[in-house]
């Protein structure tokens, strides 16, 4: 499975961005899709994940109520709508996919990764 993330950029605090991640290759094998982020000097951290049907989602506490994950299986694409952004949200955002779905997953729970897209939030 190949994942291509896009949609990052520079935004002012309080603004919004929508990230997209398109899967190709053996996309039929995908169940869970998710987003992680990694800020400079920090470890990669979980942001959000969504089940194949889209009916089940989990979010990190830091983004709950501000970010929304969704997916369009017809387009093999997962989205991350990010609202009320703060400078603490500045990071490289990575999409990920796996055959299994886990609640509160870690990076090791995903077998396929995209290249990352940079989100910078200015104060």
Structure description:
With 123 residues, this protein is mostly beta strands. 0% of the residues lie in helices and 50% in strands. The strands form two sheets. Strands 2, 4, 5, 6, 9, 10 and 11 form a seven-stranded mixed sheet that branches. A four-stranded antiparallel sheet has the order 1-3-8-7, with no helix packed on it. Strand 4 and strand 5 form a beta hairpin.
Feature tags:
single chain, 123 residues, mainly beta, seven-stranded mixed β-sheet, four-stranded antiparallel β-sheet, 11 strands
Summarize the structure.
The chain is an all-beta fold. Helix content is 0%, strand content 50%.
Spatial shape = globular
Q: Tell how many strands the DSSP assignment holds.
A: 11
Q: Which class do the helix and strand fractions yield?
A: mainly beta
Order of helices and strands: EEEEEEEEEEE
Mean pLDDT: 94
């Amino acid at each position: 499975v190949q994942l291509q993330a896009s949609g990052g950029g520079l935004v002012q605090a309080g603004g919004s961005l929508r990230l997209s991640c398109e899967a190709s290759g053996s996309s039929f094998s995908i169940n869970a899709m998710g987003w992680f982020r990694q800020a400079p000097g920090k470890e990669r951290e979980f942001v959000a994940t969504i089940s194949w049907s889209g009916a089940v989602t989990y979010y990190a506490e830091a983004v709950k109520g501000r970010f929304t994950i969704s997916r369009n299986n017809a387009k093999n694409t997962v989205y991350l709508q990010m609202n009320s952004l703060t400078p603490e949200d500045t990071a490289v955002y990575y999409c990920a996919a796996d055959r299994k779905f886990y609640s509160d997953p870690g990076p090791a729970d995903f077998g396929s990764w995209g290249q990352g897209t940079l989100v910078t939030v200015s104060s």
